Amino acid sequence: MQTVLNNLSKRRKMMFYILMAISVLALIINYFFNIPTTSYFGEENNIYIVYGLISYKIIELCVLYLIFYRRHLHKLTHEEHTNELLAKFEKNAKRFFMLVPHGSTIFGMISYKLTANIYIFLLFMLIASIALFLVKPKKSFT
Predict the structure, then answer these.
(1) DSSP string, 23-69
(2) Is 28 helix (H, G, I), strand (E, B) or coil?
(3) Residue 80 DSSP one-character state
(4) In terms of C-beta density within 10 A (0-12 exposed, 13-18 middle, 19 or more buried), how is residue 68 classed?
(5) What's the pTM?
(6) Lesser CB count within 10 Å: N end or C end of the chain?
(7) Tens digit of each residue's pLDDT (9 = 90 or more) over 112-139
(8) How far apart are the C-alpha atoms of 68 and 79, rounded to whole Å?
């Protein structure tokens, strides 16, 4: 059990570093290159699409947290520590720690392309960082 928690904490820390590296890289690209907005939907509609992506990401993180991580964590703390339950928890926690930065990066890139505003991209990175900050594997079992 302790090795699983240590591995998940390392993965969580690694994802923080990846988010920071992506954010710094985005700032560098934004500083040196001019990326124009897309005109697929019209400029007045682009911001509404971005608002929809932000709302979707926040709702998705709540669902991922509640379904993939919290449900198995709750089962593990209230039941006997079986190997099968521990394996499910580890699998879903790894999935959560991988999907949070991945999804936020993709949505941030789409939003950046729609608005050409780096702050929108950084908002998605902040949302992912907050989600990773709130989920602490080691603290859940102490």
Answers:
(1) HHHHHHHHHH---PPP-SS-HHHHHHHHHHHHHHHHHHHHHHIIIII
(2) helix
(3) -
(4) buried
(5) 0.85
(6) C
(7) 999 989 999 999 999 999 988 988 877 7
(8) 17
